[in-house]
Amino acid sequence: MANDPSLSLEDFCDALYDDDRLIGIDLGTKTIGLALTDSGRQIASPLETIKRKKFTQDVERLLDLCQEHSVFGLVIGLPLNMDGTEGPRCQATRAFVRNLAQKTEIPITYWDERLSTAAVTRTLIEADRSRARRAELVDKMAASYILQGFLDRINYGGTSLFEDA
């Protein structure tokens, strides 16, 4: 897509070193869920939910966390429609990434996030979490779900895109 600063999956993986950590992002209109990988990039764990304020404040918090956790790559959930087409939420996500890329050199790629929130919500309901507790957890857990899907693909999806992974 024109003017899209994100990298393809292969180019993103080529830009990383073996021990680089990643942050997964579930971008919502009111919150930004974040998840973090371990240094071996095997496991994604929920990290934090940023309550959206203004773009600059949101990005400052994100980049502070990237620095704090030595993160060298961002995996952004792309909210495709069920038929694979892009709607208004995809456009908003791509606009966020275009603006984010002006603030950082950290490589960025997209990952299909269809049904991530639904899957996490179902898990929380099965775990008998209250509605309030689900609301508190769902965004960062959705980010973890997105990031784990990415990790599983690159590490176990037939051939690893990381040479020493």
Automatic annotation (TrEMBL):
Q: Which domain of life is it from?
A: Bacteria
- Enzyme class, top EC level, equals hydrolase
Q: Which SMART domains does the UniProt entry name for this protein?
A: YqgFc
Instruction: List its EC numbers.
Output: 3.1.-.-
The answer on whether this UniProt entry bears the keyword Transcription regulation reads no
Query: What stretch or stretches form a coiled coil here?
Result: none
Keyword Nuclease among record annotations: yes
Question: Where found, per UniProt?
Answer: Cytoplasm
The record, for Pfam families, names: RuvX
Keywords from the UniProt entry: Cytoplasm, Hydrolase, Nuclease, Ribosome biogenesis
The record's section on InterPro entries has: RNaseH-like_sf (IPR012337), YqgF (IPR005227), YqgF/RNaseH-like_dom (IPR006641), YqgF/RNaseH-like_dom_sf (IPR037027)
* Record-annotated YqgF/RNase H-like domain positions: 20-120
Looking up HAMAP family in the UniProt record yields:
Nuclease_YqgF (MF_00651)
* Role description: Could be a nuclease involved in processing of the 5'-end of pre-16S rRNA.
Please report which protein family the annotation says this sequence is part of. Answer: Belongs to the YqgF HJR family.
Provide the protein name: Putative pre-16S rRNA nuclease
